[in-house]
Amino acid sequence: MVSKLTDQLNFHKEFKNWYDLIKKDFKFDYKKDCEARDYLSRIFLKKSQNWKLNDVLNLFKKRILTKPSILVFGCGPSLEKTVEIIWKKEGAIFFEDFINIAADGASILLREKEIKIDAIFTDLDGITKNEFEYTSFNVIHAHGDNIEKIQYFEDDIIKFENIIGTTQVEPLTSLINPGGFTDGDRILFFLRTLLSPFQRLFLIGMDFGSIIGKYSKINIKVNQEAHPIKQKKLQYALKVIKWLKKMIKNPIYFVNSEYKTEDFVNLSIEEFLNF
User: Fold this and answer.
1) Which of 80, 124, 141, 227 is the most exposed place for a label (fewest CB within 10 A)?
2) Looking at beta carbons, which pairs linking 229-235 to residues 24 or more positions away fall under 8 Å?
3) Which residues of 244-271 are buried (b: 16+ CB within 10 A; e: fewer)?
């Protein structure tokens, strides 16, 4: 018997050791994480009776499988330059050959460039309501520090049809825990069981250095030095991506990234365009 997608995507038990380590290192409040999860869950109960999590997950999977390559856009400092060069050379129509998934504020750049967005993964601190409405799917994450943001977007969450809720603690009927720490790496955790064997993942704007991109937060205007806590978060994100890589058979490429490692293939923009 084939399990429901909710069961396939819940990765809470497998990721729990990472969560416990991260929670301890950053002194996160488990009770606040649960409070945020419960609050988001109650919002989902206000949605139309036609909304069912497993139905939305199936629609999401169908969308993901429609094209052979997926672009995952992070908010790192290489994002704007990379997208700008590709956009100038090929135009926005180039991106229509891909599934485009944005981590949080990267969606602002894509909307500005009129690049179609298939899904946004966000804890709501890097997007506006314009991006919320611009995408086909929203995947909203609840954690102890974003309850006010969830409140701000409550009406939008209720109205938006193709929406999925995630948590970093024990999942509920209406929310899943796919694993992952930041919006960017959570995308890869979410995709791990949905991909066909022939699909490829290209990561754009996924940098793990000391500089954060201006699309990381709403109130940031230029790329700037990351706070030490942010730098540590990025290092954890990199660690969990390396851990996850063993479970994803699909090729993963970093495009024009400032991050260089033997663990992944790093493509220049020219190499990416010639693929």
Assistant:
1) 227
2) 229/26, 232/25, 232/26, 233/26, 233/181, 233/182, 234/182, 234/207, 234/208, 234/209, 235/208
3) beeebebebbbbbbbbeeeebebbebee
Question: Alpha-carbon distance 51 to 66, whole Å?
Answer: 23
Separation CA 173–CA 244 (nearest Å): 25
| 265's tokens | 């293939």
> Which range marks the domain in which residue 172 is found?
5-273
Taking the C-alpha atoms of residue 106 and residue 113, their distance in angstroms, rounded to an integer, is 11
pLDDT (tens digit, 9 = 90+) per residue, 52-88? 999 999 999 999 999 999 999 999 999 999 999 999 9
What is the maximal distance between C-alpha atoms in the chain?
51
pLDDT digits over 200-233, tens only?
999 999 999 899 999 999 989 899 999 999 999 9
Task: Give this prediction's pTM.
Answer: 0.97
| Coil, helix or strand at residue 161 | coil
69 burial via Cβ count (<10 Å: 0-12, 13-18, 19+): middle
Q: How far is CA 263 from the centre of its chain?
A: 21
How far does Cα 122 stand from its chain's mean position? Answer: 6
As a three-state string, the secondary structure of 184-196 is: HHHHHHHHCCCCC
Judge whether 164 and 176 are in contact, CB under 8 Å. Answer: yes
Q: Say which amino acid occupies 274.
A: N
Number of domains in the chain: 1
- Report the alpha-carbon distance of residue 242 to residue 244 in Å, rounded: 5
